[in-house]
């Protein structure tokens, strides 16, 4: 369940502007998804051209690690990193306060660890991701054995949970961490902080895709430039 409303040019403009923020010697969180991918490729080109030295990427998923390798971005693993200078990551929806819904690619658990740890977390997006109020389904990564109990709790919280399945696989999507994903439709989310706290307090939820108050900036690529927002 990916959003594909924006154009590649819009995504590329946003991501390349964000990649320009990275300086030599920095550690960079590498987000997952089609928009963040443009930033990873731009970083790889800068490394190859000698414009960036001693830069290390921290991948947020199997996919971002593979892309970074292909693009020539040196990597260090999440469990050995002590500080992340900048994280560049995409989003499925961005509200007026910079709160996000992430996890369209089921990578939100590691993304949240990396994005929250970064001194500067920059979201890269196209205009189709902007909303006044978040209203897309919130992905929950859940322990497989807890799926029924977590679904019942989501129902109590006013949500409608659907187990994510894949087009080219029978059965559920399995995350990089070996868990399932429930896409939970809560309608318009008027109080993301409160819903985030309720979901985080639900046993069996490994991580949810509401990123409340984590983003420092958003770069939104348009047809002729980049709209930069600070939160
Ligand atoms: O799990 C995936 C991530 O949260 C992505 O960053 C998010 O789904 C946005 O992806 P895209 O840039 O492809 O729309």
From TrEMBL:
Keywords: Isomerase
Positions of the catalytic residues: 111 (proton acceptor)
Domain of life of the native organism: Archaea
Gene3D superfamilies named among the record's database cross-references: 3.30.70.260, 3.40.50.1360
Enzyme Commission numbers on file: 5.3.1.6
Protein residues bound to substrate: 32-35, 89-92, 102-105, 129
InterPro entries referenced in this protein's UniProt entry, alphabetically: NagB/RpiA_transferase-like, Ribose5P_isomerase_typA_subgr, Ribose5P_isomerase_type_A
Catalytic activity: aldehydo-D-ribose 5-phosphate = D-ribulose 5-phosphate
Pathway(s) it belongs to: Carbohydrate degradation; pentose phosphate pathway; D-ribose 5-phosphate from D-ribulose 5-phosphate (non-oxidative stage): step 1/1
Biological processes per GO annotation: D-ribose metabolic process; pentose-phosphate shunt, non-oxidative branch
GO CC annotations, alphabetized: cytosol
Molecular function terms, GO-annotated: ribose-5-phosphate isomerase activity
Described function: Catalyzes the reversible conversion of ribose-5-phosphate to ribulose 5-phosphate.
UniProt family annotation: Belongs to the ribose 5-phosphate isomerase family.
Subunit annotation: Homodimer. Homotetramer.
Protein name (Swiss-Prot/TrEMBL): Ribose-5-phosphate isomerase A
Species, as recorded: Halogeometricum pallidum JCM 14848
